[in-house]
Amino acid sequence: MNALSTAAIGAAEKRVAFRAGLTSGRIQRLPGAFNPLVAKLIQELGFEGAYVSGAVVSAELALPDIGLTTLTEVTERGRQIARVTDLPVLIDADTGFGEPMNAARTVSLLEDAGLAGCHLEDQVNPKRCGHLDGKSVVPVPEMVRRLRAAVSARRDPNFVVCARTDARGTEGLDAAIDRAKAYADAGADLIFTEALADAGEFAKFRAAVDIPLLANMTEFGKSALLSAGELENLGYNAVIYPVTTLRLAMYAVEHGLREIAATGTQSGLLDRMQQRSRLYELLDYERYNEFDSGIFNFTLTGEA
Length: 304
Known about the structure:
Distance between the termini: 38 Å
Strand order of the largest sheet: 1-8-7-6-5-4-3-2
CATH class of the largest domain: Alpha Beta
Structural class: alpha/beta
CATH architecture of the largest domain: Alpha-Beta Barrel
C-alpha cells in the first residue's frame, strides 16, 4: 500500500489476478468487506480477494435486501473498497438494476470503479435475499439477454461477469444446472448457484458444469457450511462469506451498547475492543506522517 492508503496495483492487474486465481486449482476465498477498513484487514490476513454484498450494502442503509438500493449507492461502496486494497474485489450487482441496457451500464460503471468482477442474478426485479422463500426467476432467454448485454459492455476482457441462478429453490437442482449451462454459453465467466443444500448438491453441480464455480457460505441460510478445503476438494473455484463480518460486528456492537445502557460505562468492554494502536496500524498512520514530513520539509526565510 502506498502512503495515501490506495492500492499499489491497478484495477487491470487485479482482474488478471482474479482470473488466474479462478483457474489456479486453489479456491479463492472472498470474505465480505462492509467498509474499506475491513477490506484492508482482509488483505493483511492473506485472503485472495474481497467481496461486496448487496445484502450488506442494503443493511448498512437500514434497508431489507429487496432491491431498494441504487446503482449509484452500490457502485460508490465498491469504489471505496476497491480503492484501498491490492486484492481483486467482486461485487453483487443484483439483477443489473433494470433491463439488459441497465445491466450493460452497471458493468461499465463497476469497471470504472475498479472492481474485478460482478455477479448478476436471474431473479425477477425487484429481487429478494437468495435464502428466503417466495423468490421468482425470469425466463432463461431474459437472463441470457441480461448476461449478453453485460458481457458486451465491458472494455477490459478480464472483468469477470459471474452469473447467479436462484432456480435451485424454485425449479429444482436440474433446472438450475440447465440454466447454468445456458448462462455459460451466453458468456458468463463464473457461475454462482444460490442455496445449494449440501455437499452432494455442490458435487452434482460441479460434475455438470464446465466453467469456474462460486460457492456462497452464508450463515443461517439453506446451505450447509462447508469449509474452504471441502469446497476446493469438490472442485469449486471461489467461495464468498458475504455477511459474516457484518454479523460479527453488529453482534459485538449490540452486546456493548446493552452493557453501557445497563451499567452506564464501557469500562468492562475494553478487552473486547480493538485498541487504538491496532486501528492506527491498519490506517497506516505512520506512513501518512512520513508522507507529510517528506513534502512539508522546508522553512521560509526572509520576506516575500
